[in-house]
Automatic annotation (TrEMBL):
Domain Response regulatory: 8-128
Presence of keyword GTP-binding: no
Record protein name field: Response regulator transcription factor
Keywords, comma-separated and alphabetical: DNA-binding, Phosphoprotein, Transcription, Transcription regulation
The organism's place on the tree of life at top rank: Bacteria
Keyword set includes Transferase: no
Location of the HTH luxR-type domain: 157-222
InterPro entries for the chain: CheY-like_superfamily (IPR011006), NreC/VraR/RcsB-like_REC (IPR058245), Sig_transdc_resp-reg_C-effctor (IPR016032), Sig_transdc_resp-reg_receiver (IPR001789), Tscrpt_reg_LuxR_C (IPR000792), WalR-like (IPR039420)
SMART domains to which the protein is assigned, alphabetical: HTH_LUXR (SM00421), REC (SM00448)
Modified residues (4-aspartylphosphate): D59
Length: 223
């Protein structure tokens, strides 16, 4: 997926000093522009509908309407996914209990608030390009959740895999394991273009809005 020439970002946090700090960091980058800010999930949904930013950098824990509410509302309005907005969630806790719910609802990534400037800007660029942007702690949590076999998959989850080919299931399993497109190409001994095509079809057929959401689905359904 081609990176936008200029990435527009909506910064959402209930603390003014954090909004200002994040905005200053992102605006200092030549390829990133802060299009607006919001102080809770409800305002975020309204501003996103108006500005249609490439990425929402949004705190998951906010009063009144939190980040999970906003994520669900954005999905309901059809504002998430390829060609629309991506959501990068912010949290103070590397084992936030909302991680699974946020990724399953379509968040493109999860970032700790104590991340470095490089991690922050890199995650925004990755989300804008349609890639997962997960901190190592969150990635490990997804993998460990799969290995521990947390629960049986629901009929609805299994139905989402029904139209996948055998090769697409292989690709989905490797997405779950955190492999990049290049690593998947090496593992399956195919071209990078072929992998990108498979990934696109996997997301379309399963109804997933991001690789992170696909990873959660695969963790819950694939052995």
């Amino acid at each position: 997926m081609r990176m936008p020439e200029q990435i527009s970002v909506l910064v959402v946090d209930d603390e003014p000093i954090i909004r200002a700090g994040l905005s200053a960091i992102l605006d200092s980058q030549a390829d990133i522009t802060v299009a607006g800010t919001a102080n809770d999930g409800e305002e975020a949904a309204e501003v996103c509908a108006r500005l249609r930013p490439d990425v929402l950098l949004m705190d998951i824990r906010m009063p009144r309407r939190n980040g999970l509410w906003a994520l669900a509302e954005l999905g309901r309005r059809g504002l998430l996914g390829p060609g629309r907005s991506r959501v990068l969630m912010l949290t103070t806790f590397d084992l936030d209990e909302y991680v699974d719910d946020a990724l399953a609802a379509g968040a493109s990534g999860f970032l700790l608030k104590n991340s470095s400037y490089e991690e922050l800007t890199g995650a925004v660029r990755a989300a804008a390009a349609g890639h997962s942007a997960l901190s190592p702690a969150v990635t490990q949590r997804i993998i460990e959740g799969h290995l521990s076999g947390r629960r049986q998959p629901s009929d609805q989850e299994l139905a989402r895999l029904r139209d996948l080919t055998e090769r697409e299931v292989d690709v989905l399993r490797l997405i779950r394991d955190g492999l990049s497109n290049a690593e998947i190409a090496d593992r399956l001994v195919v071209s990078l273009h072929t992998v990108k095509t498979h990934v696109s079809r996997v997301l379309t057929k399963t109804g997933c809005q991001s690789r992170a959401q696909a990873a959660v689905l695969a963790r819950n359904t694939l052995s």
